[in-house]
Amino acid sequence: MKNDLNEGNYKLVLENLIMKFKSLDPIVISKLTNSFYNNKSNTFKLIFLDSNIYIHYPSGIIYKNNKKLNEDISLNILVIRFLINGIYINQTNIYLSYKETSGGYVYYSNFKSRTIKPFINRYKDNCDLLKKHMEKIKAEKLNMGDISYKVRFLNEIYVVFILWYGDEEFEAEGNILFDSNINNYFNAEDLAVIPDIILNNLK
Fold first, then answer.
1. SS3 for 164?
2. Are 95 and 179 in contact (CB under 8 A)?
3. 159 with 151: CB under 8 angstroms?
4. Three-state secondary-structure class, residue 32
5. Is 134:149 a contact under the CB 8 Å cutoff?
6. Which residues of 29-52 are buried (b: 16+ CB within 10 A; e: fewer)?
7. pLDDT tens digits, residue range 28-69?
8. Helix, strand, coil % in the chain, rounded to nearest 5
């Protein structure tokens, strides 16, 4: 599953975000986002899926848990945006569909075709694979649909993936929901990319 991104535009977006990131006090960022900051190494530590990522201040360079440079520019943008938005809201366990999020209704048809349908097609004939992938990242199993999991994206930001099995009469269906706290961190365009990033990291 591939993120449909204009790489040139996204590089410019990332550069602008890092400029703002540099202008902020890292201690203030740490307090506002409830994120750990190591003032000796000048790095923030965030939880991404089931591991950690590290963000160097003030460069904005992001490393994975294995110390490798993270090259996913869409993830880099969302991580820096998370830090500079600076409002910590714990998970609510109240879930919204994409069209219920702020601004999501306008882009819902695109989100459904680009993200929900590929998710369904990937796992509709292999629910054991979905279970394997979700258990590998320690996702929480929920009682929604025929099979569903709550996945941590960053820190206390969670996304729910739901699948209904198909049969001879009905095609398989699925949905992707967001914890309602996500509106405090990201806009609708960001939210359209988050499930892709998660699914791209399921192996």
1. strand
2. yes
3. yes
4. helix
5. yes
6. bbebbebebeeeeebbbbbbbeee
7. 999 999 999 999 999 999 999 999 999 999 999 999 987 889
8. 45, 25, 35
